[in-house]
Amino acid sequence: MSHHHDVIVVGAGAAGLAAGARLHRAGVDVRVLEAATRIGGRAFTDTGTFGVAWDRGCHWLHSASVNPLRAAADDLGLAYLSRGSRQARATHLGERWADESEREAAWRGIDSAFAAIKRAGEAGRDIAASEVLEVPEPWTRLARHWINLMSATEPERLSTLDYVAYADTGENYPVEKGYGALVQSVAQRMAPALAVTTGCPVTRIDWSGRDVALETPLGRLTASQVIVAVPTSVIARGGLAFAPLLPADLAEAFAALPLGAAEKVAFHFDRDVFGVAATSYVDTIDLRDPARRPINFVLNPFGAPMAIGQLGGDNAARLVEAGPGAMEDFGLAALTDAFGAEIARHVTGVATTSWVTDPFIGGAYSCALPGFAHMRARLAQTLGERVRFAGEAVSPHAYSTAHGAYLTGLAAADAALAWLGGRAA
């Protein structure tokens, strides 16, 4: 087994798989190293827990008309639902369903919150989103909940300028057999023989010499080029060390772009207990209890007898810390409020995520802290022209998405190819 490669890719999420597949297809000697025992990162489709596919992480083909993974899904014959997430949406208020005027008022409040953040960003203001929110009660909690879902963090830690940099066409389509399955299928089609070594955490990258040296459980590996495709949190907390140390401005950028929390609690039932159309969406907010945080659900996703609850921000992080039972109780309480206590008797399985405690991920997706939006651009720099970075956080306009990560992986691979070609010339 060779210990030297043209390129080593660290991380086998959407970015790392894209980079590795592009390089392998170009005929260079590339190896992908993944710390976890599986590939995909947060693109993780679970088919074993309930016997049906559901995504523990990313699920939406965001900006579908310009999303290369949507085009790849078409080529692969993988189905997705091409309608917006607001269709078939209802709102439960704790003891009753909202009427149409209340539902419209709730969404006006949510829309006004995002519009205020956008206006501030478009005006060049790099401030906390919380400074511009003026959502009429009783919809403040619901608006904050949706900010949590979209950014994975609280408005107090969300840069308005970073938020407005995100480009979204509004076409957000769920993938029937799973986004994680799609990401892996795309990489497999691009490069069927790509070598990916799982269970192989890289602990140190030494970029001081002519070649880049990596410390791994396999021993010391070297490469002419290295692409680092791991989450910002891993680097910021020192989970991946560098020698020499990262330049101060780059280290500061990783710290200023932390991952928030976006978690799920999924319930499987022995039959359809909801009586709603396949892939219906429900918001919940308990108007009786101002301290109770909202949760929203996808019901009967693609016809499966399930409810998948989505949580974000501090509430998601607190529930993960409290344990799977706390997340289950929180989600089931909202479901039984809306559909009756008897549905609990039909639960056949429960699954919860805990991305914030995953040592190789550490959260959801990146969001610039207020005042630090400009630091995202710093992630595009290289170390000695030999170490490059990829991942959703590196994308200037599609951060927080799988396709943003995928595109940065392709770009890093192309840059490595150009460097290798220039050296050969």
Automatic annotation (TrEMBL):
Pathway: Plant hormone metabolism; auxin biosynthesis. It is an enzyme of class 1 (oxidoreductase). The keyword Oxidoreductase applies. InterPro entries: Amino_oxidase (IPR002937), FAD/NAD-bd_sf (IPR036188), Flavin_monoamine_oxidase (IPR050281). Residues 15-158, 170-416 form the Amine oxidase domain. Its EC number is 1.13.12.3. Gene3D superfamilies: FAD/NAD(P)-binding domain. It comes from the Bacteria. It catalyses: L-tryptophan + O2 = indole-3-acetamide + CO2 + H2O. Keywords: Auxin biosynthesis, Oxidoreductase. Coiled coil: none annotated. Belongs to the tryptophan 2-monooxygenase family. This is Tryptophan 2-monooxygenase. It comes from Ancylobacter amanitiformis. The lineage of its organism: Bacteria, Pseudomonadati, Pseudomonadota, Alphaproteobacteria, Hyphomicrobiales.
